[in-house]
């Protein structure tokens, strides 16, 4: 008897950064299991709508259907200064009626809904249409542990975390210094905190939680998440490590001046410096970084953004081109561009990070420790110099250094203080030149190997995905009976 395949509905948060891992997940279900995939696009305005659509059609190769939900206007619902930690959850609540209308018209109706920790209000629609309900955490297992544990901490810790002297002990995670916690937790009076806690509680309603990490990378944390005496008594839903879900580099774009230059450098000899699209350094920090790189006497590629410029990807993507034109780097120290001519490459254009990281000449990455960047670094065997710029990246930095052993950490936190040139020089040399660097490089290569193994047929993430696929098929059969 010919049975049709399950239909998986994905509801990611608005924004490219959130969309990409969902697209990757959808492609896995489509290619490994032949499932039908629909991505429900939430957008805040029309321009982000068009941008997301273009990316999806470029990347999905027709593997995923796209349903564009009408943009939501939350201006009357949130304070104009509200943070993203408030805007996202509110947007995801407001989208529910539109999502419901859309589901009601789709034939066959999806068998499964997979959404973000902030998307669980759509679970009511899933229930109504008899769909399974899953959450996909596009970050790591510590983040999931923290999310589940926050409602417990809320009852246990009297007074705000900031007033805590002792590091916080979250089951399955190394103890986290309070100053390394991420923003919403530091201010209990903030709506952000309430939203985050609510998300932690609502996670319990799910049929399962997928995590963009893999068993062998975070064995202790996954064990704690399943242990009935630890986090397993709070979150009873099964946890599935299915990662690393990342986008792959396509070789076609590896051309131009930068890659011509990289091709001439020895293997593992170049430090790649980039802080992602969301942040800019202060003028003072930029100066110290420039001198630090120069003093280290190592080769480097630095993707710069003008200091103090307002954050926002658009300004960045439209940045001026022309690597030859040194005037555009007037904010860098005087004479810097000519002094580094033969060892450094400074670029302000958008370049594909994966393409750079996968180049054999790259030997280290000065990074803000976003999860995306971390996964890309592991998959290319590149050690990290952790340079967290915001509170919320500090926990990641702790994890990379203390748990994964793939990074060195700065003595001062860049989010609190300017990191001096000597410190930068020392850390660069530690990774690129000193003995300690060899150990870290070996460790990253071990992680790279374990990631590849997890994704291969028979690997842990592959099996987790197959297990999920079985549950989806079982539900489908029940519905057909
Ligand atoms: C993650 O990586 C992809 C591929 O390199 C990139 O397009 C995307 O913007 C990144 N997302 C974030 C949040 O950095
Ligand atoms: C540099 O790396 C590339 C790619 O990994 C490899 O093919 C090549 O043999 C390496 N070159 C040297 C000199 O080790
Ligand atoms: C880690 O990095 C990601 C960015 O990829 C960020 O969204 C997250 O909040 C950071 N912190 C933690 C605790 O996960």
Automatic annotation (TrEMBL):
Query: What family is it from?
Result: Belongs to the UDP-glycosyltransferase family.
Keyword Nucleus attached: no
The record's annotation in InterPro entries points to: UDP_glucos_trans, UDP_glycos_trans_CS
**Keyword terms:** Glycosyltransferase, Transferase
Alphabetized PROSITE patterns for the sequence: UDPGT
What Pfam families does the entry give?
A: UDPGT
Q: What GO molecular functions are on record for this protein?
A: UDP-glycosyltransferase activity
Q: What is this protein called?
A: Glycosyltransferase
Which EC number(s) are documented for this chain?
Answer: 2.4.1.-
State the source organism's domain of life: Eukaryota
- Report the Gene3D superfamilies cross-referenced here: Glycogen Phosphorylase B (3.40.50.2000)
PANTHER family xrefs:
GLYCOSYLTRANSFERASE-RELATED, UDP-GLYCOSYLTRANSFERASE 72E1
